[in-house]
Design goal:
By secondary structure, this protein is α+β, with helices and mostly antiparallel strands. About 25% of the residues lie in helices and about 35% in strands. The protein starts with about 25 loop residues before the first helix and ends with a strand.
Length: about 210
Amino acid sequence: MTLADLRKKYEKDVLLESSLAATPLEQFSKWFDEAMQANVPEPNAMTLATVDGNGRPSARIVLLKGLDERGVVFFTNYESHKGQDLAANPHASLLFFWQPMERQVRIEGIVEKTSGAESDAYYDSRPLGSRIGAWASPQSQPITREDLEKRNQEFTASLGQAPSRPPHWGGYRLKPDYVEFWQGRPSRLHDRLAYTLDGGQWKLSRLAP
């Protein structure tokens, strides 16, 4: 079988305008709950796409760690590649792909840092090893495995059992202005329904697949 021969039939569900919630984040919450109930592996895993100051894009998987009417939250090292991109260009895009349900969601908007209190609360909820790792790893910088493990040992010894949050680590919140829901359908005639923020109001449209 060649790459050109790889095909999958999409026929598990439909997506109609009449079934959607009034706002995209309400609809996302509904789909996310359904993904959880369906035991989709790591349903909170999402591709984060950013663009640097020179217009060069990059993408990576991060984890959804917060969701409310204000937007979508994830946490990382502010000095990492993604952090530098967001400092230069705060526009970003998120993509969820729930393959067992034949669904994907695109979320686009402006990213801003969460409050220090929000970042502290999440940091303090993490396992101790992860909290120390946030200090030990100079994320996105060249390093040998030996040096990384040495740094981890040193910070483990010096920070104790209750390390504070590193100043270079915390949360980001993507405030959406465009959210698209995709449901696979037969013959590649997929359902694509998009919410666009216009003058403070959400407008819904169907897009050709």
